[in-house]
Amino acid sequence: MRSLPAGVVAYDDVGSGPCLVLLHGFPLDRTIWRPQVRALASRARVVVPDLPGFGNSSGANHPASGPMSIDGLADTVLALLDALDIERAVVAGLSMGGYIALAGARRFPERIAALGLLNTRMEADDDAARRRRSQLIDAVGRDGVEAIVTAMLPGLIGKSSRRRLPTLADDVAARMRATPPATIIDGLLALRDRPDATGTVRTLAVPTVLLTGDEDVLTPPEVLARIAATLPADLPRRHCVVPACGHLSSLERPAAVTLALIELLELADRPVSRPVS
Ligand code: MLT
Hints:
Elements: E1 11-14, E2 19-23, H1 34-40, E3 45-49, H2 70-83, E4 89-94, H3 96-107, E5 112-118, H4 127-143, H5 146-156, H6 159-164, H7 168-177, H8 181-192, H9 198-202, E6 208-213, H10 221-230, E7 237-242, H11 249-252, H12 254-267
Parallel strand pairs: 2-3, 2-4, 4-5, 5-6, 6-7
Antiparallel strand pairs: 1-3
The protein binds D-malate.
The site of D-malate has 6 residues, from loops.
C-alpha cells in the first residue's frame, strides 16, 4: 500500500470519472470547496486535500523536505496523485491554490490535463506586498491568529455577499481561527517568497479556465485579465468574471464556480480513469 505524502492527513476523494483536484486558499481548508464537491461528484472523481498544516491536516508536520513553500505544496499534490494512482488530473486552485496549481504546471505538466485559476494571480509579490507579509508575520507572532483575521477577513468576501450571506464572514473567520499560528507564519513566508509564474502562464499547454469576482479586491478582474493576455493565444480557455462576487468565489457564488469547473472538465484534453484494482 502506498502512503500519503507527509503532512496530508485529510482529503476528500469522491465520485468517479475524470479526476478533478481542488486546492484551497490561505489560511483556509478544503471545506471552501464543499458546494462544488457535492455538485460535481456525479461527473468527476473529486480529490480535495487539506494542505499540510491546514484544516484537518493541521496536526501534521510539513513535508520533511524543508520549510513550507508553494513549490513544496505543489510537490505534495503530486505525491497525493501518486498515492491515489492518479495519472493525470484537472487541477483547479483558488488564490493560494492557484499559485500551487501554477507551480504544478511548471513542475509536473505531464500530470495536469487542464488548469483552473480562480481568484488568483501569476505575479510574485512586489516589494510592498513582501513588506506587508513580513509585518503580518510579526503581528501573528505577537498577537496570534487574530492578527490574520483582522488583516485578511475584510478583503476575502465581496460587499454583495456580506449583505446576501450574513453568516459567511463568521464562518470564514472560524476556519481561519482553526489554523495554527505556526502554519499561518509558514504560509505567509511561502506566499511572500513564491516564484513569479508569468513564464509558466506564457507557455501553458493545457486548457485553462480563469475566474474571479467583480468585487474581488485581492485579485480583481484586471489581475485575471493579465493572465488571459499572457496565455498562448491559441489555448482553449474560458474567462469568467462573476457578478456580485468577491475573493471567496467557491462559497460566495457556488453555482457559478461549479459551472466553470464543469466547463473546465469539458475542456480537458483527456479524462483520467481510475486504475482497475
Ligand atoms: C488566498 O486567498 O489564498 C490569499 O489571499 C493569497 C494571498 O494572500 O496571496
